[in-house]
Specification:
binds 1,4-dihydronicotinamide adenine dinucleotide, 44% helix, Rossmann fold
Length: 269
């Protein structure tokens, strides 16, 4: 039985990017942050709607939750499409009559030096990592206001907001904008009892970081591990615990914040 403040029984949560990590992974690497979050929110008692561009992966996450006696549904969703975000929010809301939690976790990585950054890549990253979160916030907050639900929105930013890092212009700029969206929306919907917070993780072992070459991964992980007082990089569950905190009543007096599960180390550049 979860502690009452962390008990999400009777609440409905929508998690984007929930497929991450369903594919076979190199030994020692964790699943995705969205999948870990959906799994943890379901374990805390929520009915969880797992949404992702990768429909098979969303279904796999929902099936794993159901197999563990949680309650989950899967949706194919492209967060860059406002109509699709609206439809999935409506579907999640119609099943239980309410939407309590929106976790905007879907995101993509792109790395290119500023002088080589192309418009098409800039647009792709902006559309997914910023506009996708904006659409999620708008549609979910409207649903919460319409049903007088004192809900929680959690937006995935990144440690890239805290420092310049080579190659991370498009990614870091979109994530910084996510934090600005979080702070701004928090001031606008607080009167409805809706809280809006962001999470800015450090280096987390997922499919996203696995995509780096082994050499690049070692170059990036090495300084993180050396500089962390905890002496390690993060796992998806480290971030999921932070999201659970922000979605639960345990954080009922927190809004407009960016929490940093990063092992005590910001970007080391
Ligand atoms: P991941 O690649 O395992 O998961 C991302 C998920 O988003 C995938 O399942 C993918 O299919 C989905 N997705 C991508 N574009 C989509 C779209 N247009 N519509 C719907 N779904 C879409 O990566 P990871 O690491 O789990 O990333 C999750 C979030 O955490 C991302 O926003 C990422 O930027 C952020 N993050 C990750 C860090 C890390 O070190 N892994 C550090 C800081 C932030």
């Amino acid at each position: 039985m979860p502690l009452p403040a962390y008990d999400l029984t009777g609440r409905t949560a929508l998690v984007t990017g929930a497929a991450g990590g369903h594919l076979p992974r190199p030994a020692g690497s964790g699943g995705g942050i969205g999948r870990a979050t959906a799994t943890l929110l379901a374990a805390a008692g929520a009915t969880v709607h797992c949404a992702d561009l990768d429909e098979q992966g969303a279904k796999a996450t929902a099936a794993a939750i159901s197999a563990a006696e949680g309650c989950a549904h899967a949706h194919r969703l492209d967060v860059t499409r406002r109509d699709q975000v609206a439809a999935v929010v409506a579907a999640a809301r119609s099943a239980t009559g309410r939407l309590d939690v929106m976790a905007n976790i879907a995101g993509i990585m792109h790395s290119a030096p500023v002088l080589e950054t192309e418009d098409a890549d800039l647009d792709r990253v902006w559309n997914t990592n910023f506009k996708g979160v904006l659409y999620g916030c708008q549609e979910a907050a409207r649903a919460m206001i319409a049903t007088a639900t004192r809900g929680s929105l959690v937006n995935m930013a990144s440690g890239a907001i805290d420092a310049g890092a080579p190659g991370l212009l498009s990614y870091g700029a979109a994530k910084a904008a996510v934090v600005q969206l979080t702070k701004t929306l928090a001031t606008e919907v607080g009167r409805h009892g809706i809280r809006v917070n962001a999470v800015a993780p450090g280096w987390i072992r997922t499919a996203m970081t696995d995509r780096h070459t082994a050499e690049a991964q070692q170059q990036a992980e090495g300084p993180m591990i050396r500089m962390s007082p905890l002496g390690r990089v993060g796992e998806p569950e480290d971030v999921a615990q932070t999201v659970l905190h922000l979605t639960s009543d345990a954080s009922s007096f927190m809004t407009g914040q960016a929490l940093r599960p990063n092992g005590g180390v910001a970007m080391p550049w």
